[in-house]
Design goal:
By secondary structure, this protein is an alpha+beta fold. Helices cover about 20% and strands about 30% of the residues. The protein is built from three helices and 14 strands. Helix 1 (about 15-40) packs antiparallel against helix 3.
């Protein structure tokens, strides 16, 4: 009778182990690329907001006060470069016309408890360090909003949209964090011009942000909601990678084939 040797194992050839590892590595790379692409897709807020009452009845109910080629704001794009890093791009034809009608760039206002529509109370403001038309980039300071420090829309001697939050003074306050801003694609076709705000700060457990931006005359103002991508999607991705790692380790173990002597 032949003895059964249960201690003898047949080892996988090294080339097969390497092949398995290569296939798993390619799969993991593909999953990472897909996750990165999904994470990089911005949240888009189209301009459907009208806002406050213009100082001339001729413009009541209209989205833009004045010439669209000078003031039109088309959209906001919100991205999360990491868990605590937010990037907001404001698209507007105004960025080729800064200073028109004695106007200036506006600051960005944020709500962290959702967006309730017109009349939203803003919790944070991202303040530019310069409003000069000749300045194309700089630093921003993040402040918790105090009502006394809100600057509302203005344009002395011109028709404008009143009652809009446009800048933040920050008087008597310390910044919670600092970041950067920049104007992009200026010159040429002005429909692709955008103002970028970048800030790294832990706002806590936020489901939906509210956002608001307008130039100092408020002739076109954009507001809207940006819902943060659901964490479970990234959790499932992590579980998948763990499972992939476990499967790879199992493939690298010796076979349990039994030899009969």
């Amino acid at each position: 009778m032949k003895a059964i040797d249960t201690t003898s194992r047949i080892q996988k050839p090294a080339w097969k182990i390497a092949q398995s590892m290569s296939a798993a590595a390619l799969l993991a790379a593909g999953l990472c690329l897909a996750a990165t692409s999904a994470q990089a897709a911005p949240i888009v807020i189209q301009d459907t907001y009208i806002g406050g009452t213009p100082t001339s009845n001729a413009w009541v109910g209209k989205d833009i006060v004045g010439t669209a080629a000078h003031y039109d704001v088309t959209k906001l794009e919100v991205s999360f470069a990491s868990a605590n890093t937010m990037i907001v791009d404001v698209y507007s034809r105004y960025f080729d016309n800064i200073g028109d009608g004695n106007t200036q760039l506006g600051d960005l206002f944020l709500s962290t408890n959702g967006y309730q529509g017109d009349g939203e109370v803003w919790e944070y403001a991202l303040k530019l360090d310069s409003y000069r038309p000749s300045t194309a980039s700089g630093a921003i300071s993040l402040y918790g909003v105090q009502a006394a420090n809100i600057q509302y829309s203005f344009a002395p001697g011109y028709i404008y949209r009143a009652g809009q939050e446009v800048q933040y003074k920050g008087i008597g306050q310390s910044a919670l964090a600092t970041g950067s801003w920049s104007l992009n694609n200026i010159g040429g076709v002005d429909t692709d011009d955008y103002l970028r705000f970048t800030i790294a700060y832990d706002f806590g457990d936020v489901d939906t942000y509210g956002l608001h931006w307008g130039m100092t005359c408020g002739n076109d103002v954009i507001e809207g909601a940006a819902t943060v991508p659901e964490p479970p999607a990234m959790l499932l991705f992590g579980i998948g990678l763990i499972g992939l790692g476990g499967a790879l380790r199992q493939r690298m173990q010796p076979n349990n084939d039994i030899r009969i002597k």
